[in-house]
Design goal:
This protein is an alpha+beta fold. It has four domains: 91 residues, no CATH class; 170 residues, no CATH class; 96 residues, no CATH class; 162 residues, no CATH class. The chain contains 20 helices and 24 strands.
């Protein structure tokens, strides 16, 4: 049962190679260190094997291609070699211990860790006195003690530590073959885990199905259409868009919205259809009062908002399936993603291989070569400019202290005298040359570099060539000539397995439930059976778009050309509430009586409605590109029985934060909503566009500016 058909899976081709077994030991010549090392076979792949070598850090591993097998020499008696190395390092450690004893005995120093009785302490003290009395020069004896402490003994201890690590490595070498055998068994456990996971998917052990619309089912022969693009509920229906979009608590409202024929036919356009949903693309902002309980509640809510739902249509019947699985933006890949007939290039990253087609590699290599040639040409010009205008990079030894207390920087024509007044640094009193070096390097030499051609200190073309992440020398052909061939095949197979999870769910729905009934027998594990029952809709990767992606900021600028006196705008309410939030957060932060101050994103004081979601400009300032809004708000009183008074309130908003409704035409929001390229950003524009749409439809009235006299009349 495969979303990626069976014949498109990459096949692993095993060549007949040399007879190698786990646990065998071979001598390997290391070309870098020019030394021969003994290594154990710990893994055997289709075209390579791993050799693990005892080292100070447990052991290190290299991969050797089967073609290079003849360069190795088998060791038939590895245990003897291991014992010889163990004995060698034991002897080395014993020799070092004897040297330490000789030195300490000569100087009258005890080698015991602690003195356990009075007799031993007296003996150690007497030895010291004997050594001092026998030495003609006490100062020489003191110097010998210092040399022993600071040089001789530390060097011997360091050498002993080095040999102890090698001794430990060879003592544990006999365990390397045993670990290799145990690691080889782990692959069986992974396969068992995969089988358990597949059974749970097929049997629906980790899912819950709910029907929310009834009616006539699809025809018997209708195929199941699976949509490639993962959708987001808040972007599709715009429920609660004014407060940041819907969350998991609005799931029932979304289902009611989805059950409407127009919405159902737009999102699930086929009689038998399946699409994946998440509630939200981004985390929702919730008001946080600083308490632990609220923090846990917010995290739990955002976790529920990212849960995956599969929406299934069968004629007029609608279901949603809640699953613990997580799907990518595309719930199945493009047809050529796992096509073994397409030659690939690969690059080793920290945890996995990165792939690209040979055609992509060749195209990027041409761009890289062109940019690198341009960079090298510019770099020659920059170096010439450095020599003529800046000089070489200053080094600390270039600065010398003069008798008069000044410092001379010695660099040919760039030589100069540096005084304390130039540097004006506290370090001058500690080290004049050091202070002069840092001052000249940071304030003179570095600043001169800013005048260098092609970007100043930072070469612009260099960042273009070397910081894009592509280097053709790091890529290699992905075929059986690379020792990472098995890793790449496993990575591709894991990707296929990941995408084929949806096929397991679908086969389980066909077999064990009545959700998709009536339907003919379905066998998605064969290519013919899959094609007969399922159609993949590439609505994400193969969609053709008409024209350029809609640009909201360009559209806003165009609408704002209508800004002027008495123009109607949107955006002022958001700006005002954000300012009030900053003020309220600061007030609570400075109030010692509040243990858990709030962290509001937007805040509206009691009795203060703000300028209004849609409002008319009271005063337009064309030179400053700002608009002033006025309204009446109630004064706050601590006495609940006192009579409320009104006050004259204003806010000034910059043009960039406003949207002029006078430039909006009915239905303009559709261009941003329908285009999938802007769908991810649409939710943050929806409050503006839909408020403008409601204003033109007469559903919202614009707030009218108010004067001071008008406020007095309200008292």
């Amino acid at each position: 049962m495969n979303i990626i058909p069976k014949q498109q899976k990459p096949e692993r081709i095993l060549d007949e190679g040399p007879l190698i077994e786990l646990g065998q030991w071979y001598w390997y010549f290391d070309p870098e260190n020019k030394s021969t090392e003994l290594g154990c076979v710990t893994h055997i792949g289709s075209n390579y094997f791993k050799l693990s070598f005892p080292t100070q850090n447990e052991y290190h591993t290299i991969r050797i291609h089967m073609n290079d097998f003849n360069s190795l020499k088998i060791e038939l008696n590895p245990n003897q070699v291991i014992q010889d190395n163990v004995q060698h390092y034991k002897n080395e450690v014993d020799n070092i211990l004897n040297k330490i004893k000789q030195i300490t005995a000569r100087l009258g120093v005890s080698t015991r860790v602690g003195i356990t009785d009075r007799h031993t302490a007296t003996k150690a003290s007497n030895n010291s006195l004997v050594c001092i009395s026998q030495n003609d020069d006490p100062n020489q004896y003191k110097n010998d003690l210092i040399k022993t402490k600071e040089k001789d003994l530390p060097e011997l201890f360091k050498e002993m530590e080095h040999n102890n690590k090698w001794l430990s490595a060879w003592l544990s070498a006999e365990a390397i073959p045993l670990k290799a055998v145990s690691d080889s068994v782990k692959g069986c456990l992974e396969e068992v885990d995969d089988r358990i996971f597949a059974v749970s998917l097929y049997a629906g052990l980790a899912e819950e199905v709910v029907q929310f619309a009834d009616g006539k089912p699809a025809d018997y022969g209708d195929k199941l259409h699976i949509m490639q693009r993962r959708c987001y509920m808040d972007e599709e229906c715009l429920l609660d868009y004014r407060s940041g979009g819907m969350d998991f608590e609005s799931l029932n409202e979304f289902n009611k919205w989805m059950a409407k024929p127009n919405n159902r036919d737009r999102i699930l356009p086929f009689p038998r259809c399946l699409a994946a949903f998440k509630i939200r693309r981004n985390a929702k902002y919730y008001d946080y009062d600083g308490s632990l309980s609220k923090f846990i509640k917010i995290n739990d809510a955002n976790a529920k908002n990212t849960q995956t739902y599969l929406y299934i249509r069968n004629g007029d019947k609608l279901y949603f399936l809640r699953s613990d699985l997580n799907f990518n933006e595309r719930i199945f890949p493009d047809p050529n993603v796992c096509d073994p007939s397409v030659p690939l290039m690969a690059k080793c990253n920290i945890k996995e291989l990165e792939f690209m087609t040979v055609n992509e590699y060749e195209e990027l290599s041409k761009i890289y070569a062109k940019e690198k040639a341009q960079y090298e040409k510019e770099e020659k010009e920059r170096l010439k400019w450095f020599e003529e205008n800046v000089g070489p990079r200053p080094e600390e030894e270039d600065f010398t202290l003069n008798e008069d207390g000044t410092v001379t920087y010695n660099q040919g024509k760039f030589t100069r005298i540096i005084t304390k007044e130039d540097v004006n640094d506290n370090r001058w009193s500690h080290d004049c040359c050091d202070a002069a070096y840092y001052w000249y390097h940071n304030n003179i030499w570095r600043r001169k570099l800013d005048g260098a051609p092609y970007g100043g200190y930072h070469h612009k073309t260099k960042s273009k060539v070397y910081h894009k992440g592509f280097n053709p020398n790091k890529w290699f052909s992905f075929d059986q000539n690379t020792v990472y061939y098995d890793d790449g095949l496993k990575q591709i197979a894991d990707k296929i397995k990941y995408y084929n999870r949806i096929a397991l769910i679908v086969q389980g729905l066909f077999d064990r439930s009545e959700i998709l009934h009536p339907h003919p027998p379905v066998q998605t594990w064969t290519a013919k059976g899959f094609e007969a029952a399922v159609t993949l809709i590439y609505d994400e990767s193969k969609t053709l778009y008409n024209g350029e992606k809609p640009d909201f900021e360009a559209y806003r600028i165009k609408c704002n050309e209508y800004l002027g006196p008495h123009a109607v705008t949107i955006g002022q309410q958001k700006v005002y509430e954000e300012k009030m939030a900053e003020k309220e957060n600061e007030r609570q932060e400075n109030d010692y009586r509040i243990r858990n101050p709030s962290n509001y994103n937007r805040y509206k004081p009691f009795g203060d409605p703000g300028p209004g979601l849609v409002a008319q400009i009271a005063k337009w300032m064309p030179k400053a590109h700002k608009a002033k809004f006025t309204w009446a708000s109630r004064k706050q009183h601590w006495n609940l029985h006192s009579q409320s008074e009104y006050k004259y309130t204003t806010v000034t908003v910059e043009e960039k934060d406003l949207f002029c409704v006078d430039g909006y035409e009915k239905g303009d929001f559709i261009q941003f909503f329908k285009d999938p390229r802007t769908r991810a950003e649409y939710l943050k524009w929806a409050p503006i566009l839909l408020a403008a749409e409601d204003y033109l439809a007469g559903k919202i009235k614009a707030s009218i500016p108010i004067s001071r006299d008008d406020v007095k009349s309200l008292q």
